[in-house]
UniProtKB/TrEMBL annotation:
Superkingdom: Bacteria
Signal peptide: 1-20
Gene Ontology cellular-component terms listed: ATP-binding cassette (ABC) transporter complex; cell envelope; periplasmic space
Subcellular location: Cell envelope
GO BP annotations listed: peptide transport
Boundaries of every Solute-binding protein family domain copy: 84-449
Protein name: ABC transporter substrate-binding protein
Keywords attached to this entry: Signal, Transport
PROSITE patterns: PROKAR_LIPOPROTEIN
Molecular function as annotated in GO: peptide transmembrane transporter activity
Family: Belongs to the bacterial solute-binding protein 5 family.
Amino acid sequence: MNRKTLVLPAVIGLLAPVLAACGGTDSGSDGGDAIVVGTTDAFTASKDAPAPLDPAYAYDVGTWNILRQTVQTLMVQPRGDGDPVPEAAQSCGFTDSGNERYACKLRPDLKFADGDPVTADDVKYSIDRARSLKADSGVFALLSTIDTVETQGERDVIFHLKTADATFPFKLSTPVAGIVDPDIYAKDKLRDGFEVDGSGPYTLKAEVKNDALVSAVFTKNPDYKGSLTVNNDKVELRNFADADEMGTALENGDIDLTTRTMSPEQIQKLSADSDDSVDLVDLSGLEIRYLAFNTDAPSVRSKAVRQAMAQIIDRGELVSKVYGSQAEPLYSLVPASVTGHSNSFFNKYGDPSAAKAKSLLEKAGITTPVKLTLHYTTDHYGSATKKEFELLQKQLNDSGLFDVDIEGAPWATFRPAEQKGEYDVYGMGWFPDFPDADNFLAPFLDKDNFLGSPYANSAIRNNLIPESRRVADRLSASGSLTEIQDIVANDVPVLPLWQGKQYVAAGDDVTGTAYALNSSSTLQLWELGRGVSG
């Protein structure tokens, strides 16, 4: 058998890579050695972020995919995508015509991994805790439409919302809504370190060195009750310094699968090679990359400067020279495959033009060249990020209108500095919390946004976001969503660059891999098993 590059169809009807693999689509068998999954994600505890795995704090694709294995949520996104389905809940649904009252009934006899019962009061405690702690990661904003949480007896939870929110079931499927034990998770303090306790399909044993997680072993939780079928007894998530090191481990048989992030060169090599022991999976992705601006910073406070950058940057060249077929130019925060997408940036700026950018700056009285530093993370989005920023620097400087430096930093340094407003312009990626256009807009534009951005547009916050959430039929919300995207293209608080595909390499004896990753970047380790190589 030659190496297979499988292209799985997009099933997006509605944030992004983490894991998939090939082999069979059957669920495999329980037992056997641990399935070892490689990742280049870095998990670090620091003074600025001492509680990376607390559900009330965690807000990146890597930490969420640890929590999804261990901390149960009322709802879960299904194996084949689509609307979320009950998980810790037996049933959930809106009980009014206005999408403002949402009621859930817990499954009977739910238990935390230590044997303590899971009750409606624990759900209320967990949700209220995340809302009141207001961690500086900004993850609590996902729960911003909740007014109050009510319990009735041991199993019934009612959410009273401030405004209609058709996306609320999706939000209850995210780790910030995870159910934690009040005896372990303090009400007024985040839980430091790498310990995680919940009622999910696995328990976690973490190996930590120098305040960094180097290995996470997930063992099947015998007390788990939920909607998921666990097809293995143990999975190990092993951290690697870079894609090359991870690739070598796969070639040597030390790991069974690679997750994010593989390098473009590795993907090209795997696509061309013939090998009957390792397969490459090609998946449609919802990952996006963008530049973000501190709109209060003197260098980019003028909208004209940000517009000029939008007018100069050549996304086509960026994609072709750095990522090849592994990415596509993006002209909105909302990916092209998501309902509500509009090519707002292309509609406004068209093809790259230094002459048009010069006119924008001249009309605003901006002295050129404009001096800027573009900041990027060296270890969070893959090894190609540096090359990407070198090309962005070249494009801007070649226009003669900018004098740009670039500066990289590891994620553990980069993210806190960005949150504190220390960077004027910086590169970020986004893997959706749930696959809806709202989740590519509100996290960047609403109050308490993920970036901590000072940019505020009253029409977006007070009218358009609430208006779009009232509509259960997301196609019918396109008018409001398009208007938001047009405002963003004009004001440029963020500058979308590209959306990417997802690639994973795996040993061909690993089964269940067609469902190991859904479109919201959810790592579904429970789907993996071992079967007959073929």
